[in-house]
Amino acid sequence: MDAQAQPRVHVQGRPGQEKPAAPAAEQAGAAEAEAQPAEQPAAPAAPPAPEDRPDSPDLLYRLGGARQAEAGERRLYADSVGGDQVAGGKHVHYHRADEAAGYRPGRVSPDELRALDEVYVGGPVHDEAGAELARRRVLLLQGAPRTGRKAAALRLLDAACGRQVFRLDPGTDLARFPEEGTAPGGYLLTEPVTRASDPLRAARIAVLGERLAAHGSHLVIVLDPQAAVTGIRPLAWRPAAADRVLRAQLRRALIAALREPDGGDAERLLDLPQTGELLAGRHGPAELRDFAALLVGHLDGDVAADRLDDFVASSATGRVAEVLDDPARELRDKAFLLALAVFEGASYQQVTAESDALTLVLRQAEDPEHHLGLTRFDRARSRLLELVHAVEERSFHENDWGRVPTSSVSFRDPGAGFQALRHLWQEHPAAREPVADWLHGLARSDAVLHRVRAAVAAGLLTSVDFYSGFGTFVEPWASSRGLRLRQLASWALQVAAEAGLLPLVQRMLRDWSGDEDVALRWTAARAYATFGVDHPDSALQDLERIVRDASREQLMDVVLDTLGALVLGGRPGPVLAALVRWSQDPSPELREACHRAFLQAAGGWDDGDGESDPWPRLLRTALRTGAAAGSAGSATAGETGQTGEPSERAETAAAVRTLWRTALGSAPFGAAAAEALAGWIAGAEQRHGLIPALAAFLPSLVLTERDRARLDHLLRQVARTGGLSAAALAELRAALAGPAAGPGTAGSPHPSYAGSAHLGTAYAPGPSTGAGRPGPHRPGADATPYPGTTPAPPAVPGEPRDTERTRG
């Protein structure tokens, strides 16, 4: 039977190839989509059908497995170099964390720099690099990933600037750096976006060095081997010898375990055969750090010798190769290994079901003439888990009806899943197509776990072989008409960036954000919901470009979703500051996006903490500093996972207040803003600590008596609808009765936002265009937000609003 007569089970979806057969319902939907003319514009389009609405971006970290869960934790909370430094009895994850995963713009904490001092070993060019940095003020350091380049750069900057070290977003514009207001210190720029048409030029670097000298700062630019540089030769980074790095890491691990670092323990551990076997290979600092922790655990009796063997074997993909490379091994066993690599952490039953589906695809690829079934009672669970070196852990899951016993299967080596996929993709090219078919089938599944895991696997495979993974998964998904598939492309790019392709992914997203293909622009905008948390400058530049584009109506929803995700992400300060700038921009498109995104984010609530019930997340952000934070009690940066200097947190809080005042005073969006703020107030008495927090926050929105009247009317209206008791209403109205906030108080805008005539309102009054969109902007009609002016009247439903604003 030929290939056409024997359709494939899983949709492949590669460009230029005939798609295999899909389930009947899926074929019907595809036929309906294909019936539309190809040149027909995608918008204005009807809302996506429920079965094709994109998934929430954060599902990548909630359902993507242990590797992605740890990446999500690092994005929110990690501020240590290279990840968790562990020793002794602590559970050790040695998942081969890549450099890209731990990069986070902002100030480098002194604790991180001190931790680096304890383990850093300078390479052969360290002294030369330090001398060049001192002489030129800017150093180009070029080398392969996972060789300690960034650690070396941090150490050089720390030595030059004394703990005042900062990481820059890779999208930082070097032509404008350092900008006015930038603190003097040492700055690290990792893998900036360069192209052959726009390289780093010697003249630009020279001018940058002069500006840095005048500013009293230093800059190290870490480059990958493919970076485009013209007229200047970067310093080639070479790492220190692996045995020296391991010895330093072992010394620190011994100290952490309260053991003598310079005694005989270290030498005995270094003389172990497993240590010699590991050092015979090529390993980065992160792997050596993890192995040092295992060695100390072995010394304490918590880590058996076979676990050291496992680590060494996994480093060489030994166990993976044993299963996948053995021609006598059953195909079903190999499929179980690959299914576990994709569904690690799922139950044994689910992994087995997915491995059986993969087995059928592999058998069909080997023998398309015959349909081969599966033997149902041929494998014992214990034998199969031992074969792939996995363990099953039993626990309980809480649901609406109580605790339910459950189990999960994981590799003993948390890095084995990635190694299995990498070994398959590199060493068994004939298996690529059926495995890709299987993953495409998962991508089109109705089960969200299947879709998330397919995207994670596609991202990892793309990091192994970019062209193959991009052409097989990322490009077909990104250019698809289906929003779910585009979502998978954005997740795959995030995973690939975390696995070492950060600069490449950043260049791709920048190109896609200006591409003629609306689907690619949509995918780029969606990708920034996760990628932009760590790289907000790049995200905001490209999102602004999309908003200004003529076809923005087709993309506004995804842009708003992304901006909302970034505002509520781990580092909202740069995003809120950008929205303040957008609110002042002459472009009505940017002002509209600013208000809609901010009000959408205002509807987000956190999960509460030990001292308070769930609160609006932006309220907790606004109460982090100053007198308001002290009044609110529990609204602190530490409780929200927010990192950054006090000045950065103060600017973030000031931006929240500024955007609220701007939205409330906006003619097109005032009513929506009042409704969103009413959502904070209604029912606040049922949430512990929320009424005092609102009493601290609401006065900070008052700059004039009109502001006070607007908020007082809103409080009374919420009370009339049953959202506030008389006592709570009296408390909040009493808080509003104080003097209007002035410059320098907790409720006033931060000085970095002062002096603009657009901070109190983003739009002049004008006819509404419907659907919550603003009317035309009239220059000169906006009011200033400071005392002595007359802002917009109360923008509250049920209360009249003037049609003109006049300056006082």
Bin the strand percentage: 5-15%
**Radius of gyration, whole Å:** 29 Å
Report on the biggest sheet.
6 strands, mixed
Output the number of helix runs. Answer: 34
Overall morphology: globular
Please provide the count of β strands.
10
Distance between the termini: 85 Å
On the 0-100 scale, what is the average pLDDT?
Answer: 77
Strand line-up of the largest beta sheet: 1-3-4-6-2-8
Q: How is this structure best described in words?
A:
With 808 residues, the protein is mainly alpha-helical. The strands form three sheets. It has a six-stranded mixed sheet. It has a two-stranded parallel sheet with strand order 5-7. The protein has a two-stranded antiparallel sheet with strand order 9-10. A hairpin with a 2-residue loop joins strand 9 (390-399) and strand 10 (402-411). Helix 19 runs antiparallel to helix 20, helix 25 packs across helix 26 and helix 32 packs parallel to helix 34. The termini are far apart. The model is unreliable at 1-46, 76-102, 625-644 and 742-808 (pLDDT under 50).
